[in-house]
C-alpha cells in the first residue's frame, strides 16, 4: 500500500473519530443552554431590547425618527429592520417595538399591530407610519 494512501486513510479515520467524540459534548452543551433558558423567569432575557442596546451597537439597524424621551404616561415607538415582521408592546414602560423587513408595507404592519396593541398606541403607530388607522378586526 502506498504511503500517501496510508496517510490519507489515517487522517480520514482521525476526523471521523473526532466527530464521534465532539458530538456528545455539543449535545450536552445545547441541553445545558436550553435548561438554563427555561429556568429563567419570563422577561429576564434580552427581549425587548433596552434603550442602551437600541442606541448602542444596533443603532445602524434602527430607522425612522426616535421620539423624544417618553413621559410617565406615554411610551415610545421603536422601528427597527429585521428579517420578519414582529410587533410587541412592553407593558412596563409602554414601549412599542416594531421589527420589520426593510421596505415592508405599512398596511401589513398595521394589520399585525391591530391584533397586539391597545387602541391609543395603535393610533400613534399609524400616525408615525403616515397611514390612516385600519378599522377594528372582525
Please describe what this structure looks like.
The structure is a single chain. By secondary structure, the protein is α+β, with helices and mostly antiparallel strands. The protein folds into two domains: 1-39; 51-129, no CATH class. It has four helices and three strands; from the N terminus they run ααβββαα. The protein has helices at 3-39, 51-55, 106-116, 119-129, and strands at 77-81, 86-90, 95-100. A three-stranded mixed beta sheet has the order 1-3-2, with helices on one face. A hairpin with a 4-residue loop joins strand 2 and strand 3 (95-100). Helix 3 runs antiparallel to helix 4. It is elongated and about 80 Å long.
Residue fraction in strands = 5-15%
Strand arrangement across the biggest beta sheet: 1-3-2
* Quaternary form: single chain
End-to-end distance: 77 Å
How would you classify the helix and strand content by structural class? alpha+beta
Average pLDDT, all residues: 75
Major beta-sheet overview:
3 strands, mixed
How do the helices and strands follow one another from N- to C-terminus? HHEEEHH
Number of strands: 3
Task: Estimate the helix proportion, in percent.
Answer: 40-55%
The rounded Rg comes to: 24 Å
Number of domains: 2
Shape: elongated
**Continuous helix count:** 4
- Unreliable segments of 5+ consecutive residues: 46-73
What does this entry show, briefly?
The chain is of the alpha+beta class and 138 residues long.
List keywords for this structure.
2 domains; 46% helix; 138 residues
Walk me through the topology.
Elements: H1 3-39, H2 51-55, E1 77-81, E2 86-90, E3 95-100, H3 106-116, H4 119-129
Parallel strand pairs: 1-3
Antiparallel strand pairs: 2-3
Helix pairs in contact: 3-4
Amino acid at each position: 500500500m502506498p504511503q500517501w494512501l496510508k496517510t490519507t486513510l489515517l487522517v480520514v479515520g482521525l476526523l471521523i473519530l473526532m466527530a464521534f467524540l465532539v458530538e456528545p459534548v455539543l449535545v450536552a452543551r445545547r441541553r445545558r443552554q436550553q435548561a438554563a433558558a427555561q429556568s429563567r423567569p419570563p422577561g429576564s432575557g434580552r427581549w425587548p431590547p433596552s434603550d442602551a442596546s437600541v442606541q448602542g451597537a444596533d443603532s445602524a439597524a434602527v430607522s425612522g425618527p426616535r421620539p423624544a424621551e417618553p413621559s410617565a404616561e406615554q411610551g415610545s415607538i421603536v422601528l427597527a429592520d429585521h428579517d420578519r415582521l414582529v410587533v410587541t408592546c412592553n407593558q412596563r414602560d409602554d414601549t412599542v417595538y416594531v421589527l420589520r423587513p426593510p421596505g415592508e408595507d405599512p398596511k401589513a404592519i398595521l394589520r399585525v399591530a391591530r391584533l397586539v396593541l391597545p387602541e391609543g398606541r395603535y393610533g400613534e403607530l399609524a400616525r408615525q407610519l403616515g397611514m390612516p388607522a385600519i378599522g377594528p378586526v372582525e
